[in-house]
Amino acid sequence: MAAAARVSRSTVSRAFTRPQLLSPATVEQVLTTAARLGYVGNQAARALSTGRFGNIAVVVPDIANPFFPPLVRSLQLAAETADLAVFLGDSDESAEREAKLIARLAPQVEGFVLASPRLSEQLIRELAATRPVVLVNRDLDGIARVLIDSSGGMTEAVLLLKKLGHQRLAYLAGPRDSWSDGQRRTTLARVSEQAGLTVEVIETGRPSYAAGRESVSAIVRSGATAAIAFDDVVSQGVLAGLEVRGISVPADFSLVGCDDTLAALTTPALTTVSAGAASAGAAAAQLLITLLQSPDGRPADAAAGGEGAAAAGASGAAGGRAGEDGGGGECVRIGTHLVVRGTTAVRGGMVA
Amino acid sequence: MAAAARVSRSTVSRAFTRPQLLSPATVEQVLTTAARLGYVGNQAARALSTGRFGNIAVVVPDIANPFFPPLVRSLQLAAETADLAVFLGDSDESAEREAKLIARLAPQVEGFVLASPRLSEQLIRELAATRPVVLVNRDLDGIARVLIDSSGGMTEAVLLLKKLGHQRLAYLAGPRDSWSDGQRRTTLARVSEQAGLTVEVIETGRPSYAAGRESVSAIVRSGATAAIAFDDVVSQGVLAGLEVRGISVPADFSLVGCDDTLAALTTPALTTVSAGAASAGAAAAQLLITLLQSPDGRPADAAAGGEGAAAAGASGAAGGRAGEDGGGGECVRIGTHLVVRGTTAVRGGMVA
DNA sequence: GTGAAAGCGCTAACAA
DNA sequence: TTGTTAGCGCTTTCAC
């Protein structure tokens, strides 16, 4: 071990950030000494100097909703590979709190992933003008986004229910501000009409087990013999409510959930529209990373979303990317499909 | 609106951080102008100057495990009230990754909440020597911690199973590094012996639906007629595996999960040991906030954990706090109790 | 009650 | 290849 030569401030800095500018020996020496002294660079000072923080934020309406944890998880894992630390914000399904969180986080993050944002379009656009933003399940032209397209799976669901002999469906709706809910309503209305079925939409505020359970009386009143719920948790609630009334599934009633979360893996297992939340998280992270790397805050090439699209493909659905649209926001679209399980058993149901 | 007088740098700073030093009129004026201009202080610069970041980190082994989201959620909500932003780290059940995450986050957080850490005691102690650390479900003397004490609920579970006529139980174990798992094993062994029952421990690596499902052959081989699983997710897997083999629950077999997560709210609903993850999150946040506020990094008074204890009480269990022990780490203990639901129905079971 | 000035620890020109 | 210098935007004595 050679005697340690004194080096300057900048040499130390360079040893960490751009070692190729120094002689290997110097780098080596600095790094070793630093390790021995337990020196670690001060993030705040670095950020102050460079304007870069190495942090991103992901904001979700409710981390306790089982759709989000896998998304956040794969996002964080992907972020780690780019050495980005991730802030988590839970807006509690409130646009107002979402705005507050964003304001609080903005001064120390380089970019945002807003998952199922409840925020107004205007506010999102204002934010996106400031720094890279990737949306998940919100379709704003010109802003990078990952969309889980439920229309495929929803269509399959309606057709299956028709085949089982149902004529009157109920849709347990999700939050009004949710893009996914909007897409599901629309698809459902369109496809049902084409198939000659009627759909009763039942509003259920915040998607929860309790909400599902309580909506059963409305379902029964509607005369529906099958229901599609906004998500698997609501669906579980419906299942419980039906049981209490002695309506058995799938013998007397068919049920379909959405998202294919942990909540669908029960006994009996839920028929559900698979959503690939984990793929969406990975894709969103990838997109944001690309945005961050390109100097002008726009994707430099087609690399973005590659992994996400692959993952979507792996889920068996039609995954793919649409290129730039009008404003220049990359859009990754993840397809869905119906996973048929116990709650709509073909062997049971109306035609059994 | 008076004409805006030019004020100095420092006045602006004070208006935000210590308004009591300024005349109300000045404060008012600065704040209004700041709002109009959209000015927000630069966190990095503030941190550089004060050494405080206003950030904390919560590290979990697997955010996709339904035990953690409610914990993280209430933690983040509580942190918000103290204007703390929260980083989320997912260690993927690996001690090594946990260490890396902590190292990455350490330079920009004021404190850590380590939930179910897989890290070695030594590393945890080293970290705790550096900055405030609150542990969840890890019992290290002298370090602040929140413990969900499963022994109460586990004991009730064993007694219920005995009453149902079972003599041979299986325990589907959790990760070896998990304190909760250790506590559950120990309690189970002790109580079962006292009750004259035998317990077969079946190892299942990472707790998951698949692991539970695959462990069914071992359960059957063991001759057990009832099983207690490390958590509800594993329990659901077991349920599915049993069904495949035509073993029906609770008629032929009794099943108990742990944590009382979303995964227990199914049809049939799972009998489970309620764990109050949300209370634990709130209590941990509270504890950390108190630690952060006391200049020496130790709680100043008994305020810490008050909310958590209250919440624990609300869950119907015996919640409470132990005061300082040897080293000075506050310890909040949250009790548990058995929630009896469909998978161990008293009307069914072995004695039906 | 308010302003002036000195850093916090780092990076990034610019020199050498 | 390395050192010197000038800030990044804030807080904080210390004067006034």
UniProtKB/TrEMBL annotation, chains A, B:
Keywords: DNA-binding, Transcription, Transcription regulation
GO molecular function: DNA-binding transcription factor activity; transcription cis-regulatory region binding
Membrane-crossing segments per the record: none
CDD domains xrefs: HTH_LacI, PBP1_LacI_sugar_binding-like
Domain HTH lacI-type: 1-50
Gene3D superfamilies noted in UniProt: 3.40.50.2300, lambda repressor-like DNA-binding domains (1.10.260.40)
Official protein name in the record: LacI family transcriptional regulator
